[in-house]
Amino acid sequence: MLICVCQEHLERALDEYTEEHEVAPSIFLRVQLEREGKEVATQCSYCQKESFYVVKGNAD
Ligand SMILES: [Zn+2]
Questions:
Q1: From ligand 1's centre to the CA of 36, what distance in Å?
Q2: SS3 category, 9
Q3: Cα of 16 from ligand 1 centre, angstroms
Q4: What CA–CA distances, in Å, run from 40 to 19, 22, 57?
Q5: pTM greater than 0.85
Q6: Residue 15: phi, psi to the nearest 5?
Q7: Could you tell me the pLDDT band of residue 28, with boundaries at 50, 70 and 90?
Q8: SS3 labels along 12-50
Q9: What is the Å distance from ligand 1's center to 33 Cα?
Q10: 10 CA distance to ligand 1 centroid (A)?
Q11: Measured in angstroms, how far is the CA atom of residue 52 from the centroid of ligand 1?
Q12: Measured in angstroms, how far is the CA atom of residue 21 from the centroid of ligand 1?
């Protein structure tokens, strides 16, 4: 599970991830993952804004 969010929705993504997986996820900057060549959504999962953070587990 990988959630891309804007700054405003970071907390919501953390809550949803934690609820579903019962462990806290890690927070990455989208630009950081893009630099590593990973494909991440440029739009927030909850609104129309550009994504800034990526919330995901270490194994994802
Ligand atoms: Zn958002």
A1: 23
A2: helix
A3: 14
A4: 22, 23, 14
A5: yes
A6: -60, -45
A7: very high
A8: HHHHHHHHHHCCCCEEEEHHHHHHCCCCCCCECCCCCCE
A9: 18
A10: 8
A11: 9
A12: 21
**Residue 35 predicted with pLDDT over 80:** yes
- Span from the CA of 37 to the centroid of ligand 1 (angstroms): 23
Listed in sequence order, the residues at least 6 apart from 15 whose beta carbon sits closer than 8 Å to its beta carbon are none
Q: How many residues does the chain have?
A: 60
Cα atoms found within 13 Å of the Cα of residue 37, Cβ hemisphere only? 0
CB 30 within 8 A of CB 53: yes
pLDDT tens digits for 11-22?
999 999 999 999
Residue 44, phi then psi, degrees to nearest 5: -60, 145
**DSSP 8-state assignment for residue 51:** P
CA of 12 to the centre of ligand 1 (A): 9
